[in-house]
Amino acid sequence: MYEITLREYIDIEPKQLLRIWFKPECLLREAKKIKRLKIIKRDKNIIFSFWEVEVDNVCFNWRQIDELDIQRGIVNFKMYGGEFKDYKGIWYILPTNNNKTLLYLTVTIDWGIPVLEPYVKKVLERKTRLLFRGFLKSIKVVAENYGKESRYCYTSY
Fold it and tell me: Cα–Cα distance between 140 and 9 in angstroms, integer?
């Protein structure tokens, strides 16, 4: 099992940033590692999606459920089908004193390969960190460049 924590400061208000989760397809413009992202179902503040990503020429895919707590600025996510044994995490969308937003992420992944893990652990950890660092950077670009214009990605909630 591997856990990472990452953070990024974004020059946009938390409520505006939270809107990306209502239309994550917007990330496809900037997140080159996301090869396919399909929304399976939306139900109020719950989103079911399918993800296919590529890191260092290796593809991974999974089905994910995101539960949005708009009032608290929290997005819980977890895998409910895919190539890992377990995958879950939390996005925290926090206001700062300088009118920016701190996007804070914690992710836990269990690849489900205990026999091979000692041999490939470092590679898998590097790929995971690279993938989520890319997600953070993509969210930042989308939010700061497109987020202020509602016609691009955002819907009201």
Answer: 8
pLDDT 10s digits, 33-68: 788 889 999 888 899 999 898 877 878 889 999 999
Within a domain: residue 29?
Answer: yes
In a domain, 153, yes or no: no
- Look at the chain and report how many structural domains it folds into: 1
Q: What is the pLDDT of residues 79-109, one digit of tens each?
A: 998 877 888 999 999 999 887 899 999 999 8
pTM of the model: 0.83
* Integer CA distances (angstroms), 147 to 11, 137, 140, in order: 10, 14, 9
Domain assignment of residue 121, given as a range:
2-145
- The residue assigned the tokens 């409910």 is 80
Opening angle at CA 60, ends 21 and 62, nearest 5: 50
Is 152 part of a structural domain of the chain? no
In a domain, 113, yes or no: yes
Helix (H, G, I), strand (E, B) or coil at 93: strand
